[in-house]
């Protein structure tokens, strides 16, 4: 019988990973837009996109003190540091779900490619915003995002075919590339990660709760008690 437990991750650690994934997804949804505004403030050419201009101009006016406290590019670069802990959080959530699922065959390798890409993304984002090599590492970020996009399609389809729950996570993996182009037409590239953040937060939450259900399942799956008169 196959046991759906992450034997190398304690329940307490799993809960912490799940909470971190939820917290970073919520934080990224809000702070990501502030970073987008800082990006637009330092790269005015972004306002040529009609959808960007429609929301960014009034938002920049309302939040001007949060954007003008230093040189525009420095503000953008500083706010960009938020993406490193966010990427770490959803990478950890994906790893938790991977260990819980214990995939085999092709699915196992698709998981490994995706988690490796998340890890490289976190490292590349850290280099992009925490070191002077911003331009060089931005190219690495683009390459990693391509791996996440195409690899996510293969993994998402495989998960759907094999009955993975929550299905929302699998669909968000599949839709990453189209969402990427839509989101970057409206806001910054960093916000294209939001579907992944929420998708893995959902999956980690389900993983933690299924672990809590196991002791009860174990006690109810034992041999049936003998009926009176049949001893």
Give structural notes:
The protein has ten helices and no strands. The protein is mostly helical and 231 residues long. The radius of gyration is 21 Å and the shape is elongated.
Keywords:
231 residues
User: What series of H and E elements makes up the topology?
Assistant: HHHHHHHHHH
Q: What proportion of the residues is helical, as a percent range? A: over 70%
Strand-residue proportion: under 5%
Terminal-residue CA separation? 29 Å
Q: Roughly what is the average pLDDT, rounded to an integer? A: 87
Number of helices: 10
Count of β-strands: 0
Q: Provide the structure class.
A: mainly alpha
Q: How many strands, what sense, and barrel or not for the largest sheet?
A: none
Radius of gyration: 21 Å
Regions with little confidence, pLDDT below 50 for 5+ residues: 1-6, 213-231
Q: Tell me the overall shape.
A: elongated
Quick recap of the structure?
This protein has 231 residues and is an all-alpha fold. 76% of the residues lie in helices and 0% in strands.
Describe the protein's topology.
Blueprint: H1 11-42, H2 50-62, H3 64-67, H4 72-79, H5 83-101, H6 105-130, H7 134-161, H8 167-174, H9 176-186, H10 194-220
């Amino acid at each position: 019988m196959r046991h759906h437990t992450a034997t190398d991750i304690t329940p307490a650690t799993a809960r912490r990973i799940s909470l971190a994934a939820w917290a970073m997804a919520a934080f990224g949804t809000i702070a990501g837009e502030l970073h987008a505004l800082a990006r637009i403030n330092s790269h005015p050419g972004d306002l040529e996109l009609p959808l960007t201009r429609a929301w960014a101009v009034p938002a920049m006016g309302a939040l001007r003190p949060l954007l003008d406290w230093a040189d525009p590019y420095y503000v953008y670069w500083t706010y960009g540091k938020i993406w490193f802990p966010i990427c770490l959080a959803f990478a950890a959530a994906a790893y938790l779900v991977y260990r819980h699922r214990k995939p085999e065959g092709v699915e196992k390798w698709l998981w490994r490619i995706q988690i490796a890409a998340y890890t490289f993304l976190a490292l590349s984002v850290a280099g992009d915003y925490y070191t002077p090599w911003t331009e060089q590492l931005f190219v690495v970020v683009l390459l990693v995002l391509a791996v996440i996009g195409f690899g996510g399609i293969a993994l998402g389809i495989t998960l759907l075919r094999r009955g993975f729950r929550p299905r929302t996570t699998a669909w968000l993996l599949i839709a990453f590339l189209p969402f990427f182009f839509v989101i970057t037409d409206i806001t910054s590239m960093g916000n294209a990660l939001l579907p992944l953040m929420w998708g893995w937060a959902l999956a980690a939450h389900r993983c933690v709760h299924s672990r809590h259900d196991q002791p009860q399942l174990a006690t109810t799956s034992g041999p049936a008690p003998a009926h009176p008169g049949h001893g």
